[in-house]
Amino acid sequence: MSDISIPAGGKDTAESGSDAVPGETIYLDAPGTTLKDTWKNAGPGIAAAMTGIGASHIMHGPTAGAQYGYALLWIIPAAYILKYCCFEFAHRYTMVKGESIMNAYARVGQWPFWYLGFQSLANTFGIAGRALGCGALLWAAFPFMSLEMWSMSVLLISVAILWLGKYEVFEGVVKVAIIVFALSSFIAFALQAPPPGEYLSRLMPSLPPAGAMILFGAMFGYFPTTTEVSAMQSNWAVDKKSGMVYVKEMREKGHKVEVHPDYMKNSMILYRRDMNVSYIVAALTGMVFLIVGAVVLNPIGLVPAGREMGVTIARIYTDTFGAWVFPIIIAGGIAALFSTVFTYFDGQARVFEECCVRLKTSWDTPGTRKLINRGFQVLWVIGGAAVMFGLPKPILVVQLASILALVFSPVIYWLTIKAITDGFQTPEEREHMPGRFMMGLAWAGTIGLTLVSIYVLFMMATA
Fold first, then answer.
1. In Å, what is the CA distance from 122 to each residue of 117, 348, 416?
2. Which residue from 120, 286, 364, 442 puts its CA 20 to 30 A from 80's CA?
3. CA 105 to CA 287: how far, in whole Å?
4. What is the pLDDT of residues 354-376, one digit of tens each?
5. Total Cβ atoms within 10 A of residue 461
């Protein structure tokens, strides 16, 4: 048998390896680490960031700034730091083990899949809130349809694009719109920013102001995004065939696979760049939204609420640049929130699908998987519609969804830590174990989110 030497990385690798005959030796070169290679291999980290640069940034950030000035600013970096290892570990697990982190959950027992399945259904409030936010921006620009109808359209369009497999057509436009939106936010910040001392001093943790408990908990729940996105991020890494995923896949097909000595080293460099760059940009963007909301909206007492949410948030930019910027900002905000809705529809349906087939293994067939995936999305459309038409208040619905996300987060975080500590067994896998600092940060995040959840629930119950 002749050997086959192919470059590492993504779809190109998968297509090249598909021509190999079982028994042949496949040699994988180390992926490059240039900026071009980084962009080519990016994906799971950006996808995870896209789920966050939406409801949390566009809705929670300006609302917090408008209502309480800089008092809640510290929550954003705190939430990003506390949750970092949850996403990093899930991605790391897939890179090293070559499989979805859902496999690690299965080793704990069946209860994690009941837990995540219930969480998926409870997240109907989340998808409804995100769709309402996107609908509010559409209604602000095109008021010929009601908020509820625009929001419903967002859900239906998301499902249609997924079922038709046509997201690539929209992906480029969405990315450009989000970049313009983010850049506009940073420019607005540069033009409106107060002296640094006014907001930097609010980065020290403090108790929330009176009346801010729901928003306090909501921000911890949704910044940087919800912890179940860690499982979604792992599944996206599997689709990207990152790290050992492709190696394991080829070996299971009967191929002999040899890898360049730097294959995993370079793959890990690429995944950390994807994760860290997306994470840092998202964190800074969230803080910018809150600060600009505090500068522009707080002095005039204007707080995003109800169906006027889109118009209110647009004031951040129109008061800075002028009325001409309104359509640009609305388009960018719609793209950001739509990408969140779409990414959640895709990611959460995959998680629910995995839960179902692991709870009932006879369902683990391509046809049944597809039926479960699409059935869940239909259920989300129906449930989301009930929430949107019954409670057409974007900010309130997202805040309720965020509190639910906060309460679910500690268990998901613990499962992610356990996946790493129990899953990395071989000497090669142990080489990629997180260091003591990272493990300490992970446990601090789990305990921290648990304490915040208990505190928020207690204060809400006794209010």
1. 9, 11, 20
2. 120
3. 34
4. 999 999 999 999 999 999 999 99
5. 7
